[in-house]
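Comment thread on ticket #2218

A.B. wrote:
> Attaching the input chain for the structure job we discussed in standup.
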Amino acid sequence: MSAYRGRFAPSPTGRLHFGSLTAALGSWLFARAAGGRWIVRIEDLDPPREIPGADAEILRTLSAFGLESDEPPVYQSRRGEAYARAFEQLKVAGHVYPCWCSRSDLAAFEAIHPPHCVAAKDSERDPAWRLRAPARTIAFDDAVQGPIHQDIAREAGDFVVLRADGWYAYQLAVVVDDAAQGITDIVRGADLVDSTPRQILLQELLGLPRVRYAHLPLALDGEGRKLSKQERALAVDDADPLPALRASLAFLGQPAPSAKTVPAVLNEALRKFDPRRIAPNAGMPQPFAAMREELS
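C.D. wrote:
> Ran it. Output below, let me know if you need it in another format.
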C-alpha cells in the first residue's frame, strides 16, 4: 500500500464537539505517527441538516487546536459528477434497483430492507436507489476494535446509494472520495463500524482499493448517549483549547502531556503516541464538562 494518507471528514451540521475533536485528534495522531499526510474533507451532502457557516467554523476550530489539513479541504457537494459515474457503473452492472419503500414500510423489518421491496411503485414520486446486499459475510481487522464480521444481507440489508431527493448517499460518496484522495487509512468513531462492511462491498464492486480501518471509542454524555451535534453536545472552546485537547488525549488512553502550549502538547503527544493504549470501549467516560474540570 502507498504512503499513509489519513483524513477527518466532518459534516457541517454544527460546531466541533468533544467527540468530533477526539476523532480528529485520533486520526491526526495515527497519520503523523506513520509519517503520513492528514486531510480534512467536508461531507456536506445533507442540506436540510447543515448550518450555514459551520464548515468555516469547524476549520477555524481545528486550526485553533493545531490540526491543519495538509491539503485544501474537498467539499462533497461539489463532487456530484464523480458520484454519478460510480452510480452508473453500479447500475450498468445490475447491482442497484429503484425502491419506493419508506421508513414506515420498513418498520416491521427493524429498518433493514428485505431482499424485495415491500412498497409498490409510485409514479407520483421519485424512488431511492438501493444496492443489493449479497448473502455473504464481510470481515476486516480493525486496528482498535479487532476482528469485525458482518452478514451484510441479514444485518444491513439492501442499502441506499442514491436518495429519493437526488443526493448521493454517504456510503457511496465516502468510498468514491476516499479512493479519489488516495486515502489508505480511515480513523473515525466506532459508531461507523457498522457502515464499514457496506463500504468495503462498494470498494469491491467499483474496483477501488481497500483501506485499513481504526474505529475509536465513542465519547458519551452523562446519560450514556453518543455526543452529537443533534443532541446539542457541548462545543469545544477554541479560545481555550488546552483543556479539551488534554481531555481528548486522556480519553484516547495517552499520557497526560506536561507541555503548556498547543503545538508543544501535540508534539509531546505524538512522541508518546501508542495506539495500543486506546481501549476499544473506553466510550463510557465521564461527561466532557467533568473531564475539562479535572484536566484543566
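A.B. wrote:
> Thanks. Noting for the ticket: The mean pLDDT is 89.
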